[in-house]
Amino acid sequence: MIKQHVEEKGKIDERNSYMFTPLMTAAYYDLPEVVEYLAQKKADLNAQDRNGYTALMYAADYGFGEVIKILLRYGADRRIRNNNGDSARIIAERHGNWYIIGILDGHHIDDAAVTSQALEHVKGLHSNTTDATTTKPALTGDNISSSSAASSQQSLRKLSGPSLSVDALIDLGYEQYERGDWISAITTFSKAPEINPTLEQLYIKRGRARLNIDDCDQAILDFSKAIDLNSNNSIGYVGRGFCLSLKKNYIEADKDLSKAIEINPTEGTHYYFRGSNWSYAGDIEQALETYSKGINFDPGYASNYFQRGKIYYERRDYKRAHADFRKYNELEPEDADFSKTIAWYLATCPNPDWRSGKIAVQQARKAFKLEPSHETLNVLAAAYAESGNFDLAVKAEQKAYNNQNLPKYKTLIDVYRQKKTYVDYEKEKPFLSLDTGGHLSFVPMLYSPMMESFL
User: Fold this and answer.
1) Which of 4, 43, 152, 276 could form a disulfide with 23 if both were Cys (CB 3.0 to 4.6 A apart)?
2) Is 22 in contact with 43 (CB distance < 8 Å)?
3) What is the CA radius of gyration of the chain?
4) Which of 98, 52, 97, 50 is nearest to 77 (CA)?
């Protein structure tokens, strides 16, 4: 029907009353063949609806891996943010959907196909454009505004005269980096080594900035340079190992991450990244062992408890999962994602011995206070239902639906009106199926504030 509509009207990006384009609709209903057809017809891959959602975001929200692969092959921008400030990856992270996170990070995709088809798509979009500089940039959280770029260039010009100093460049580069102006930060950090090429931390920071624009190859060179300057720089090994993991070179990544642990065996972050690498490689036993070692050597580092707890939960070892989650909560009491995940766990766990509607409501309310969103409202509704307060469950789910018109939310409104819990709803479905919010997964969120603060 979508293909027929497009062919009859000849309007590839026509919008309906919800500001959906045909491509968004195809992604929303998991129609990979139609998505491929529309992408070949040069549909706008990065168009956003009234909530700021793109086709890629809808596919990430529902866990439609094949649709995501097609969109990325043709050059869809994974960094665009919706009205809530969420990218497709953040949406997948909130669902704990490790497979989708892997695809968005570049795993499970034919890189050669990505390059060739994306180039062809871009050529098609600009074939009738006489001045490429007039093309409107994608609305991404990582893009640089023209005023920001102009300001950075002006600052750089002021520093390029006789009074140029490494300290001034470092200050400017860090200021650009902190506001997310990655390109300008890379340019500034590239000037400093011309004056003093032995500053290893500049290579670390430039490598991180390059990682933020998905330039893993150049980031690897920067981290390698930092290692050459100081072979005991464990952060350089972590950065390079992280990049190698993203490139699916898990064995070489493990060598670097193991070296980082050898240099600094009491740093829990190193174990986190090594465990992450094994998780992506699919070796969950190694991941579990690594997280456990990290806990032994650095019991004050919280993330290893959370990741190990997720593995235990996936294995339905609820007693151990509960202990790890409790410890994480002690160490990181103000983590909205954790509160949301635990609320979901306590409201929907298949084992009734490990469900608690009362505590689930407490955690969900806390999560909503820290991070008000339709996802947390959805979790809060499940918690209310588990506690027996179905009226509040209906109200919370209705608010989630009003904020984001997702079919699953509408379905759950009817479920709670029937005085059924989410567990009742899921009985005929696979364990914690992928169409709900707040899932637990053993694969960590590699692009995280922790990674940012560490590097």
Assistant:
1) 43
2) yes
3) 23
4) 52
CATH class as words, domain 318-426: mainly alpha
Spatial contact of 1 and 37, defined as CB atoms under 8 Å apart: no
Q: DSSP string spanning 15-30?
A: --TT---HHHHHHHTT
Residue in the block written with tokens 């665009």? 80
**What is the distance of C-alpha 354 from the center of its chain?**
29
CATH 1.25.40.20 fits 2-134, yes or no: yes
What Cα–Cα distance (Å) separates residue 349 from each residue in 319, 353, 354, 357? 12, 9, 7, 11
Contact criterion met (CB below 8 Å) for 48 and 40: no
Helix axes 284-297, 268-281, angle to 10 degrees: 170
Q: How far, in Å, CA of 35 to CA of 18, rounded? A: 19
146-314+447-454 and 318-426 share one CATH topology?
yes
- CATH for the 146-314+447-454 domain, from 1.10.3720.10, 3.40.50.300, 3.40.50.1820, 1.25.40.10: 1.25.40.10
* Cα 109 to chain centroid, rounded: 17
φ, ψ of residue 263 to 5 degrees: the values are: -70, -40
User: Whose structure tokens read 């294995």?
Assistant: 315
Q: Which two tokens stand for residue 243?
A: 């990049």
* pLDDT confidence band for 31 (50 / 70 / 90): confident
Q: What average pLDDT score do residues 166-183 get? A: 77
Residue 76 near residue 158, CB atoms below 8 Å = no
Closest CA to 378 of 359, 399, 360, 349: 399
Domain regions of the chain by residue span:
2-134, 146-314+447-454, 318-426
- Torsion angle of alpha carbons 395, 59, 342, 392, nearest 10°? 0
Question: In terms of Cα–Cα distance, which of 437, 442, 428 is closest to 99?
Answer: 442
pLDDT of residue 17: 65
DSSP state of 140: B
Tens of pLDDT, residues 375-415? 999 999 999 999 999 999 999 999 999 988 888 899 999 99
Residues 206 and 222 sit within 8 Å (Cβ to Cβ): yes
CB under 8 Å to 102, separation ≥6 — which residues? 108, 280, 443
Task: Give the predicted TM-score (pTM) of the model.
Answer: 0.55
CA-CA-CA-CA dihedral for 31, 36, 40, 45, to nearest 10: 70
